[in-house]
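hey so u asked for the seq, here:
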Amino acid sequence: YDRKWVALKILEGDKDVIETLNKLGYTEILNLAEEIRRKIKDKIGLEAEVLIVSKRYDEITHILDGVLSYEKVSPEALTSKIDSLAMHGVLGIPIMFLVFGIMFLIVFSINTGFPLNVVFRLIGLAEWATIIEEYSLSSLLEQFFENIGSYVADILNGLNAPNWVISLTVDGVLAGLGTILSFFPLIFLTFLFLGALEDSGYLARAAYVSDRFLRVIGLSGKAFVPLIFGLGCNVPAVLATRILENENERKLAAILAPLVPCQARLIVLLALVALIVPGSPLGQALTVLTLYIINFTVLALLGIVFSKTVIKGEAAELLIEIPPYHIPNARVLMWHAWDHSVHFLKKAGTIILILSIVTWFLLVYGPSGYIGPEVFENPSLMSKSLLAVLSRTLLPLAKPLGVNNWILVASLITGFIAKEAVLGTIGILTVGSEELIVENIYTMLGLTPLSTFTFLVFVNLYVPCMATIAVVFQETRSMKLTLLTIAYEVLVAYMVSLIIFSLGTMFSTMVM
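ran it, structure tokens below
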């Protein structure tokens, strides 16, 4: 290799070149290069790679100026007009949220009907809301697997298979496959729209606008994409971290993204927040907003801490080309979305399936042995399961948070499978149905406004779901970081909830 080229690559921090030279024993040269990089940063205020790229572009411009002539076609190109708003220091932020908000509205309305179903009910179109819910992709998939489960159960019954084999197949394996495939439409649609934003040229502009804010917590502007995706679902959010070129930044974003409150957590919040401020839509909205603020505050603080300890290093300088706007290529978008979705099924599917079977075992078995699939519909039977035993064992740890009933602990355990299961478990174990009756729950579980708020803080902060953990492992390729993600989320959720409940109790005592 040319020596000048090698020298530039060392200063740029090229990992392959540095690794090769390190193996060849050129440690003294590498140490000298690192010292030069530090001096460039101190004196000029730029990373060496940024300075080199800048000089390279200056040279390219100089050469082009000598051989090209420029003619002004119009007073102001359309791209420049749009960018005057899209990349504006102030207006760029609300425009960015509007663009992604519209994307989420379309993606999640197609996938689950939410939040369009809520809007329709608010304006008196309940029938339309029901149609959207029943014919959403997730509902159709759920119905499909219910029919498949009934069909397989009939076949196994005809073969005189043992009850536990039937339950394992239907409630364990098929339910796990249903969980895996239920994410497929969401991931496909998310990456389809992400590809459209990227191919159109807008994604680069969104990264530029958000860069100065995210750099504070150790991330670059590009990390805005996975974080904003987390508001819909943490699974595609973690998968979207692969757009980050810097490995440390990618890992940091992957373990922080699960802190963003997803759609499933929002459903739990909306269902239970009525216990805190009953009869006040404004009060309920402010309560949910407070819960979101708590999550994003924790995310920012942990981002600062992790970027200086666990995953050391500053966010990479944002070197990004701002392309002209153009219409995305449909064929490329479909391939992009399909490739990412299939990759998820292959890698994360196995982990989700195994965890689904483990959950089935905890539900249909008790200390006395096999209980049966009736446990899914009978509260008295579920109270005898291994899940109930585990929940009662963990209850003393939950009592300092104002949680005095094992059912709430059980809902947190099943919530690890999917956050919607929090509501389902509470409903089944209190009123014998997944349809929640707020007054019954309030009475049966001995909840207060403060303990309910504390419980929701914990739900919003602790591990989102097994699918998210599966993709964290898939993207970081590190069991250490995956276990760290689980541990820190549970610990932080516990500590924040404990502080809030303790302060709330102290304040209420002082007032009384």
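Residues 279 and 508 are 22 Å apart (CA to CA). The mean pLDDT is 83.
lmk if thats what u needed
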